[in-house]
Design a protein that fits this description.
Length: 131
Amino acid sequence: MRRVVTATVVGLTVGAAAFASASAVTVNTGGNLGAGSTTVASCDTTGVVTSFTLGTFDTTAGYTVSAVGVSSIDSPACNGKSVSVTLSDVSDNSVGSGGPVTVATGATSVTVTLSAAVAASKIAHVYVVIA
């Protein structure tokens, strides 16, 4: 019983030390990326609209998605920027991705081809990054 209590106390102490160390990390605003969070300027402040390009129909998996259309991109603010897309399931695990695709001058939409087709039934979230 004494060993169990000692092991529990040691485990809690190590866990508390690790938590305290992580909570003391600050964001470096001098140009280097570190742990933490900060506001990043966006070229698109109004949001974008996404749509799917359906691929083949499989009797087991259903329809697949081969590309994601991203429209309503602010122009000219985002012209020349790169667009990447990540698809995730209900548990927020990545199930597919594509890009980057460059936004052409004057364009307000792009089509991002996925690296591999994804079963549409697996997609719960679409994440778009314009950088």
